[in-house]
Amino acid sequence: MISQSKSEQRQSLLQTKKNLLRFSDNKGYSDVLLKLFCNLPEYQTMQKVISFTPLPDEPDISLINNALNERGKEVLLILASASAPMPKNLRDFDTVIIPMQGFDRTGNRMGRGGGWYDRFLSSVLKEKANVLKIGVCFSLLEVPKIITDENDVKTDIIITEKEVIRVAG
Question: What is the C-alpha separation between 129 and 131, in angstroms, rounded?
Fold first, then answer.
């Protein structure tokens, strides 16, 4: 068995996404993602949500963000980049929606490689330990095991265009 580094696994996942995902598929998944998200029991009790502005190669969750706003939920949209500042006053938020470049069924996620979301999630968890972490990813980017390190933060729920995966805590 050949050992793969985290960087090599990330590149493999990005290549898979590039080879198999058409932009038109992404837009078509929006309705499915919305339905799965709104059917979560936790959706009813969410009050303050940190979500992301999707990049073109990430699941389009704009309908989810719109639904949260329409239901009167407070939503903080972030666009993560290496130079993006961390939001302040995180203790009031109860849910974080996170993009993923890949995932496994134990809640591990692969990000873009800059570590922004892991630093961000660590900040959130320092202020409020019971924040619900929901990862959103394409099902074709599931792998048996994501290579992790000590800085990685697991998700509680993963939503793909095919299913909701609840991670055993």
Answer: 6
Domain with 95 in it: 25-166
To 10 degrees, what angle do helices 62-70 and 23-38 make? 30
45 found inside a domain? yes
What are the tens digits of pLDDT across the range 70-117? 999 999 988 766 677 777 777 789 999 999 999 999 999 988 777 788
Say how many domains are in the chain: 1
Q: State CA 82 to chain mean position distance.
A: 17
Which H/E stretch holds residue 108?
none
130: in domain: yes
To the nearest 10°, the Cα dihedral for 6, 122, 45, 50?
Answer: -80
- Judge contact between 50 and 87, C-beta under 8 A: yes
- Strand bridging mode 132-136 / 95-99: parallel
